[in-house]
Design goal:
Layout lengths: L5 E10 L5 H9 L18 E2 L18 H24 L4 E6 L5 H14 L8 H4 L4 H10 L5 E4 L5 H14 L5 E8 L3 H9 L20 E2 L1 E8 L7 E10 L12 H14 L8 E3 L6 H15 L4 E3 L2 H4 L6 H15 L1 E2 L15 E2 L4 E2 L4 E8 L3 E9 L2
Helix pairs in contact: 6-11, 8-9
């Protein structure tokens, strides 16, 4: 299915760089890393991208939903709430949907409840699995707050989750079911996630180094990003041009080594937009800083673009946000278009000479009209989202 250009009329992001979109983008422009010590107890050395400061509790009417994940999501929603309210007024409550991506849901809250049970024999009285751990809970809460009565659901395909929701939005709108979709992704830090990546041998004890010769693994982060996609909006400056998906299913936890799945996702995004590689100005790479991921993605990029297009991984700023990565990096792609600025890849030097792509090791000021944002997940679930300027 082709994607007719769909306006993106609002967006927000909160993560280790800041508690507002302005703070986050200012940190990106300043080349500042948000990585630091883990606020959660761990059995290994690592750094993480934790939300700064203390997260405020949810309004009392949503106390049943109150978790770290929900507080992060509420912070992101506060910045797009007016646009969502306007969309509901314009299109009608049944014609607006919410589709969110996550990989952990409220796992961190369940870990706390389990820890309490181990030490006292009791689950905390305020622990509510349905409203806290349940992946659908955050979307349900946001729908209640916004008065949305259209479809509300979650995509959970690990690290491609909040890239794939862009495809879900396009399908919902083009099928005629709705006229606007609030999409995005969110994940919070959890001990199981940190321990899991450590057990795979791909969790770095220091700041990650995407595409670098000395890269040795990922850093985990937390955060949320939300974007409002509508059927039409004459004054929108940013457009969703295409979403390419593929599933190479090579192995559970490593990419197809030739980059075939990544290449197919980028090709399909461009095909939907009816453009070629020469029309792409920048690539926000998945760029996790593992040996295998960066090598496979670089092969895919080289096959399509050679070394012409500047490539950035922003994982060194925020950590890998897992189910929140795709949405966050869509916001970064939009910022590149609006600012005419390609961000630097933190930690990349010295570059891996075997990767024959143009990794941006310094910020570049140049015209940016179209950006591909890549997200690739365990099991070979791949997505590439193409956003561009209307002009």
């Amino acid at each position: 299915m082709s994607v007719a250009p769909l306006p993106i009329t609002a967006w927000s992001a909160v993560n280790a760089l800041g508690r507002s979109t302005t703070e986050v983008l200012d940190g990106l422009d300043a080349g500042r890393s948000g990585l630091g010590p883990s606020p959660l107890p761990t059995t290994m050395e690592t750094v993480v991208g934790a939300m700064p400061g203390t997260l405020e509790a949810l309004p009392s009417k949503y106390a049943a939903y109150d978790t770290r994940l929900a507080r992060i999501g509420w912070s992101a929603f506060a910045e797009v709430s007016q646009a969502v309210t306007a969309a509901v007024a314009r299109w009608g409550s049944r014609r607006v949907a919410i589709v969110l991506g996550t990989s952990t849901g409220g796992l961190e809250q369940t870990e706390q409840a389990f820890s309490n049970w181990l030490s006292t024999g009791d689950v905390p009285a305020d622990y509510d699995y349905e409203h806290q751990h349940n992946f659908a809970a955050l979307g349900e809460m946001l729908a209640l707050e916004a008065g949305i009565e259209g479809p509300v659901y979650v995509v959970s395909t690990a690290c491609s989750s909040s890239g794939k929701v862009a495809a879900s939005a396009a399908r919902l709108i083009q099928s005629g079911l709705v006229d606007a979709v609030l999409i995005g992704g969110i994940d919070s830090l959890a001990r199981m996630t940190l321990q899991g990546f450590y057990s795979l041998g791909i969790l770095s004890s220091t700041q990650c180094r995407p595409f670098g010769a000395e890269r040795n693994g990922i850093n985990i982060g937390e955060g949320a990003a939300l974007l409002l996609v509508e059927r039409e909006a004459e004054d929108a400056e940013i457009i969703l041009l295409g979403v390419g998906e593929s599933a190479d299913a090579y192995r559970m936890s490593s990419p197809e080594p030739s980059g075939r799945g990544a290449r197919e996702a980028m090709e399909r995004a461009m095909a939907q937009a009816k453009i070629g590689p020469g029309d792409v100005d920048h690539i926000n790479a998945h760029g996790t800083a593992t040996k295998l991921n960066d090598a496979a993605e670089a092969l895919a990029i080289e096959a399509l673009f050679g070394d012409r297009v500047p490539v950035t991984s922003t994982k060194g700023y925020t950590g890998h946000l897992l189910g929140g990565a795709g949405g966050t990096e869509m916001v970064f792609a939009i910022h590149a278009i609006r600012s005419g600025r390609v961000p630097a890849t933190l930690g990349a030097l010295p570059l891996d000479p075997a990767l024959r792509i143009q990794v941006a090791t310094e910020a570049l000021q140049q015209p940016v009209r179209r950006v591909l944002s890549n997200s690739f997940a365990f099991g070979g679930s791949n997505v590439s989202v193409l956003v561009g300027s209307r002009s």
